[in-house]
Design brief:
Blueprint: E1 12-16, H1 21-33, E2 39-42, H2 51-57, H3 61-65, E3 68-70, H4 73-77, E4 82-86, E5 97-98, H5 100-113, E6 117-121, H6 130-133, E7 138-140, H7 153-166, H8 187-204, H9 213-226, H10 231-255
Parallel strand pairs: 1-2, 1-6, 2-3, 4-6, 4-7, 5-7
Helix pairs in contact: 1-2, 1-7, 5-7, 8-10
InterPro entries: Alpha/beta_knot_MTases, RNA_MeTrfase_TrmJ/LasT, SpoU_MeTrfase, tRNA_m1G_MTases_N
Domain tRNA/rRNA methyltransferase SpoU type: 12-162
Protein name: tRNA (cytidine/uridine-2'-O-)-methyltransferase TrmJ
């Protein structure tokens, strides 16, 4: 394996419900080839850290051994401020779409600003669930032969990691933040707001149809994801929801 320059500012590579320990090893190998070491696993199989994973890593052992394990995708992305989700299927969600190359350019701009970001990769057979994709700001799709575009997990990780590595000195796109502005809110903060909003929407009856609720929740989350909210903006939204609820209760008390 050729030597690489390690990046402490690169994307976290998040494997969601990986099915084979060998694929974790080969994904780690692809990462280290391109200087990446932040490997995160969501709900892997109990035997994921096996000799097969270490053998498949082929020298990238430390990436595997230092991988962080999470029970849920929400926990795995909580400290990140921007997330991409890899998918080859139409998810019928309104989200920006990147190729690995355009994603890498955007990631380099974020890294220059100190923003934390990562990329979600789904299980080998099924890909990411819609609820996983809904946590992302942007979708990554690899432009391949439309008659045969199947990639294994390590290939997909390699393509994204390679484009990141090759974009080391890009012409950065215009930034959306001015000097001194707040960075984007972390996924943890966004998820706290989503929970607050969804509880109140349940309470007022907006999400009263159980069969429609999952899609409605995903659509609401996607709307806010596209806004690239800052911590201050999330706090403002918390305050708006709180005041609307308080007003509704006061109005109800007055009628009584």
């Amino acid at each position: 394996m050729a030597e690489t320059t390690l990046s402490s500012t690169g994307p976290a590579i998040i494997l969601v419900r990986p099915q084979l320990s060998e694929n974790i090893g080969t994904a780690a190998r692809a990462m280290l080839n391109n200087g990446l070491t932040d490997l995160r696993l969501v709900a892997p199989k109990p035997d994921w850290l096996s000799e097969r994973a270490i053998a498949a890593a082929s020298g990238a052992d430390r990436v595997v051994l230092e991988a962080k394990v999470f029970d849920t995708t929400e926990a795995a992305v909580a400290d990140l401020q921007r997330v991409w989700a890899t998918t080859a299927r139409n998810r019928f969600m309104v989200k920006p779409v990147d190729t690995p190359k355009t994603a890498a350019t955007a990631m380099r701009a974020l890294a220059a600003e100190g923003t934390r970001f990562g990329v979600l990769f789904g299980p080998e057979r099924t890909g990411l669930h819609n609820d996983d994709v809904a946590l992302a700001d942007t979708v990554v799709t690899v432009p391949l032969n439309p008659d045969y575009s199947s990639l294994n997990l390590a290939q997909c990780v390699l393509l994204v990691s390679y484009e990141w590595y090759q974009a080391a000195d890009p012409e950065l796109p215009e930034r959306h933040m001015t000097k001194g502005a707040q960075p984007p809110a972390s996924k943890e903060k966004l998820l706290e707001f989503f929970g607050h909003l969804e509880r109140e929407l349940d309470d007022c009856g907006f999400l009263r149809h159980p069969d429609k609720r999952p899609v409605m929740v995903r659509n609401i989350r996607n709307m806010f994801q596209r806004a690239n909210l800052t911590n201050q903006e999330v706090q403002t939204l918390h305050g708006i929801v709180h005041e609307l609820v308080t007003y509704r209760h006061k109005k109800a008390d007055t009628k009584n």
